Amino acid sequence: MLRPSGGEKCRLGPHPLVFTKHETRDTNHGFYGFHETRDTNHESQLFPFHRGYHQPMLKVGLTGGLATGKSYVSARLAELGCHVIQADTLGHEVLRRGAEAYDDVVAEFGEGVLGAGGEIDRKLLGAVVFPDAAKLSRLNSLVHPHVFRRQQAFFEALERDDPHGIGVVEAAIMIESGSYKRYDRLIVTVCPPEVQVRRFIERGGTEQGARDRLARQLAIEKKRAFADFIIDTSGSFAETDAQVRDVYVRLKREAE
Questions:
Q1: Which residues contact 24 (CB under 8 A, 6 or more apart)?
Q2: Where in the chain are the domains?
Q3: How high does pLDDT run on average in the chain?
Q4: DSSP structure string for 28-94
Q5: Which is nearest to 69 in space by CA: 190, 204, 246?
Q6: Tens digit of pLDDT for each residue in 93-113?
Q7: Banded pLDDT at 55 (limits 50, 70, 90)
Q8: Which residue, among 69, 5, 64, 4, has the nearest Cα to 220 in the 3D structure?
Q9: What phi and psi values does residue 46 have, to the nearest 5 degrees?
Q10: Are 72 and 65 in contact (CB under 8 A)?
């Protein structure tokens, strides 16, 4: 479902701004726009209606909690025409032998995290960092900057090739890390905690493992407050697909 709001959020800084909109037309330049009045102090600015006239390609963050259907939603968005990358995939890439984060991670956590062929074994690494919040934070500090640089390169390439397109980054801890501020719009996938646990177990995990991971993440109900769009995946695939299409239509309208 879509997040109810009295206005559109504009992510120009660390905190969203809320604007009320009044449609206008600039007869000198021949484009439609919005005369936007910020609710807090009634400042006014004229912004073109079409983002491509004055802004880069629309950047969208996609996040949620454990087993809330992030990857399913990102796959549906890709089918509809969005350009999608997964932060987890980029994390895999920067940890490969010879890649940006490899040396620092091995130096920090030791050769005990290495598997066959000298590659970092993510299961071994996870066993070291997940029980210790300080170690997990340290790992993130070594990996995330390289992931963000790859995301930026992804967006820059897309902006050249498809300036009116929609670029989507899927990441699990986008809100917790503060990286959601990098995006123009934020989609949050949600479902009840009992559904999260059941799905995690169906994927081969344990109930305790699910609850441990949930304890390290911001609660879904709190993540809702950051969302421009909320997609509830607790129903059928058809119900989820309908929500995804609705969000896509609204994003596409904004991107053009």
A1: 32, 33, 34, 35, 46
A2: 8-53, 89-162
A3: 82
A4: TTTEEEEEEEETTT--EEEEESSGGGTS--EEEEEEESTTSSHHHHHHHHHHHT-EEEEHHHHHHHH
A5: 190
A6: 999 999 999 999 999 999 999
A7: low
A8: 64
A9: -105, 120
A10: no
CATH class of 89-162: alpha beta
Strands 17-26, 31-38: pairing kind: antiparallel
Please tell me the distance from the alpha carbon of residue 162 to that of residue 51, in angstroms, as a whole number.
13
Q: What sign does the CA torsion over 181, 217, 132, 170 have?
A: negative
What is the DSSP-derived secondary structure letter of residue 1? -
Query: In this predicted structure, what is the pLDDT of residue 184?
Result: 96
Name the pLDDT band for 213 (thresholds 50, 70, 90). Answer: confident
| Helices 133-161/102-109 angle, 10° precision | 180
**Cβ atoms of 39 and 22 closer than 8 Å:** no
Asked if 61 and 16 count as a contact pair (C-beta separation under 8 A), the reply is no
**Residue 95: C-alpha distances to residues 2, 125, 130, 169 (Å):** 36, 11, 17, 19
**pLDDT tens-place string over residues 132-143:** 989 999 999 999
- Residue 61, strand partner residues: 169, 186
